[in-house]
Here is the input.
Amino acid sequence: MSDKSTSRLRLLFGTLNPLGMPLRQKIGLLGLAFLIAIPLLVSLPVVGQFVVLIMPASSWELGLYNVAAALFFAMFAMSWDAVSGYTGEISFGHGLFFAVGGYTSAMLNMGHGLSPWVSILGGVLLAAVAGVLIGVPALRIEGPYLSLVTLVAPLILLQLFIYMSDIFGGEQGLGNPDNLVGLGFVSNYFLALGLFLAVFVLLWALTRSNTGAILTAIREDEDAVSAAGLSTAKFKIFAFVLSGAIGGLAGAAYVHTPVGSPTPSELMSVIINVEVIIAAVLGGMGTIVGAALGGLFVAMVPDYLNLIEFTVPVIGKSISEMSFFLFAIVTLVLLNIFPGGVLRWGIALGRRATGRTGGEEGMAADGGQSPDEGGTDPVEQTIERYQEYYDNMFGGDDE
Amino acid sequence: MTILVQAAMISALYALIAIGFTLIFGVGGVLNLAHGATITMGAFSAYYAGQLGLGIPAAVLASVAIPALFAGALYLGMVKRLEDEPIMVMITTLVVSVVIEQAIMVFEGTTSRSLPRLIEGQFSIAGATFQNLLGVMFVVSWLIIGLLFLFVNYTKTGKGILAVSMSHKGASLVGIRSSRINLITWIIAGAFAGIAGLFLGSWLTASYAMGQAQLVLSFSIVVVGGIGSIRGSVVGAYLIGFLEIATTNLISASLQGLAPLAVLVVVLLVKPEGLFGREFAE
Here is the structure.
């Protein structure tokens, strides 16, 4: 091993050393450790009681199922963020990829008797192909028009599923494919957590790499990227394929656990498409971390609300009946307060509280795109990008 | 023949559904994804008026006024400060529509409700009979389209709307307050959506999720016709209406809803600016 590679290794370990990390990453690691430890903690005397109490279900076993479902949802949100948060091409129909992954895998498993491990691979491949199918038109049409295409694509698929319901099971879905790891609460939880971590690490590393920088640059100024001699088409398609494959992976694995099944309402309904966007935007677009947190939040809040047995007096409805309604209101309020995402706000707040700016802290978790660096906020860039399309469309008011 | 008459009447409804959507996009430059929910709101306003025993005129009034007020409030409360951020408008209006749908679901459940019939009876053309309701729908739709044309082309406010849709800056240079024009547009669009919801609910039934299909339909029509063009929306509505009736009648009834989507994708890929849309400026 040469000197150079040793020093690179040391640098790598240095970065991975928890003590040297900025505060928010320590908090993140703690949260992660907690997620991993949940199944162990419940058997402890006092701590266990507490953990059972904060699980989003009436018992901790069911709580694990709900958290597992939330982890899958967070994977969906991260896959959305990888393409829309980074390249600024807003997709309104990411359910397409989840559905392609989930249905392909379920059909390979149920119809052709393939083991789930193999059929999931098939689902991922087909979802990647779907990524190409969406990505290629995305090169030609831009801005709001692309949003329209992505909004419509899963609807067409849904219509097809209903039209050919003898093959796809219509609105009822496909029943229950084999489970990857049986019905165990803990094993399924760790399956979800493991996948979540793998997806997270992959996307996190990728978006912090040179590729991530190019994707961000595409969001910021596509012409500049092509002027630098890079093929924006190649990177855009790459982003769509990557996002599609990961969405497909999450969808495929999801149907092979007891928490999910291949039905249109779970994989491709309008609500799912909307929830994914809400999750990523709420958490902080273009950060991956934000999408992961937003995903967990969006998926678990209704679970928690379901637990509340309180009946609102005047209208005579219980909280659990209205859980999704209340959640939508909460989302609306949060969107109005933190348009840049809760994560960015949290980071900025944390910085102010610790009184530290610059230095190590300056190396933001979002790859140096934190809001205080002005003008590089992904939301702003995306907005600017869209503004440009609109200006073009309306004859250009600028100048 | 039956198919043609049927298609003409359905298309009239589609035109009503799409015009409000295209107005907001053409003038304000934002996509109002709560448009479908506004239509649902119109239908349920009429339903509640009927439940209260207020009679048909009151039901009609409610189904126009409540969505119009709601659209105005939505613009003033949320959209106005996000006006320069189309993407946030899209997301916010999307969430608003989810809130409305969920509210209706919580209070009314998922079953469909039938609205008071506006007009009973039937009429016949060329040996086929149709509901009077559909005939009235056709007439009202053209009446509204005609009035809108007159309003836009011959009144001061209408000309202001045109000016703002052409150029925000130019309009403000000659002293037109674009936020006021936008407010008017949103209110008009809300009222149109309410009327569309009234007819749709009266003809079929009203349910909490009825707006979703209408939103997608508006999208398809508006894109086919050209975003921001009223004339284009009317033509697009008829194109898609005829196509849908033709496919469901001649090929298979289960294809309902697929035709507009297929047309939409083809148009987006071949001619993204639509039939009457403004060209992308160089």
